[in-house]
Amino acid sequence: MSTQRVAVITGGASGIGKQTALKFASKGDRVVVADFNEEAGQKVVETIKSQGGEAIFVKTDVTKFEDVEALVNQAAKTYGRLDVMFNNAGIGGAGPVLDQNMDRYYQTIAVNQHGVAYGIIAAGRKMRELGIKGVIINTASVFGFLASPGTFAYHATKGAVIMMSKSAALELAQFGIRVLAVAPGAVDTPIIQGYKDSGMIESMKSKVMGNKLTQPEQVADTVYLLSLEEASAINGSVVMADEGYASFK
After folding, report:
1. 3-class secondary-structure state, position 196
2. Pairing between β-strand 30-35 and β-strand 178-184 as defined by DSSP bridges
3. Which of 69, 144, 208, 214 could form a disulfide with 158 if both were Cys (CB 3.0 to 4.6 A apart)?
4. What's phi and psi for 222, nearest 5 deg?
């Protein structure tokens, strides 16, 4: 069995997930790109292969446990191992608390919270089965700590991601599996298009040290660093990749 690392990335077709897939591949890791958007996901795989990397795409609906379990099984079947699980797939949950679109509320919970839970469970089981001391990294947010108007459901999910990461880290430590979360701030990805449309970008920039949006490549770099053996002391933590967003106001 090859000892070359294998990284599974959900939400890998765009934004932070796409850049993280490209990052891991550029460092020589084999990448499994998972997303609901098949066309965009396949393009990421093609880009990786064109640059000499190794990758496959697995269409995945993270709101279904059987899909996430099949994803993890496919990664192990294809490459023989699973070292990194990046539970990154997420959607925005817009709308004031008293004006919730309940379908959107349930969908936000299903993707952002349940999708991460399923990834932790499925990947943790597979790593234990294979005897691999891997790492599971989950995408949280500064909005798991800070309140912002109109994002009630999103806040709930990111708060859940933080506590799920801590809880899972506690239980999986006995298997040598690390679990942690990365918390981006104002990242320039499609998820903030609504803020751009409403003219709120300058306001968002002003809340970041350096007065600029974080680029998804920067978050990808953070995720990669956390996956390394040199980061082995970081476990059960939420690492802020927010350029100071949560540190001052």
Report:
1. helix
2. unpaired
3. 144
4. -65, -45
Backbone φ, ψ for residue 247 (5° rounding): -100, -10
Q: How confident is the model at residue 123 (pLDDT cuts 50, 70, 90)?
A: very high
Domain residue spans of the chain? 6-241
Q: Please state, in angstroms and rounded to a whole number, the distance separating the CA atoms of residues 36 and 40.
A: 9
pLDDT at 182: 98
Please check the confidence at residue 191 and state whether its pLDDT lies above 80: no
The length of the chain, given as a count of residues: 249
Lowest mean pLDDT among 20-24, 91-95, 112-116: 91-95
Q: What is the mean pLDDT of residues 47-51?
A: 98
- Is residue 238 within 8 Å of residue 139, measured between CB atoms? no
Residue 54 · residue 30 · CB < 8 Å: yes
Query: Angle 15-26/38-50 helices, nearest 10 degrees?
Result: 20
Q: Model pTM greater than 0.90?
A: yes
CA distance 34 to 12: 5
Q: What is residue 36's predicted lDDT score, i.e. its pLDDT?
A: 97
* Assigned architecture for domain 6-241: 3-Layer(aba) Sandwich (3.40)
Helix H or strand E encompassing 35: strand 30-35
Q: How far apart are CA 203 and CA 212, in angstroms?
A: 10
Question: What residues act catalytically?
Answer: 154
Spatial contact of 116 and 85, defined as CB atoms under 8 Å apart: no
Residue located via tokens 């980061």: 231
Query: Residue 210 — very low, low, confident or very high, per pLDDT cuts 50/70/90?
Result: confident
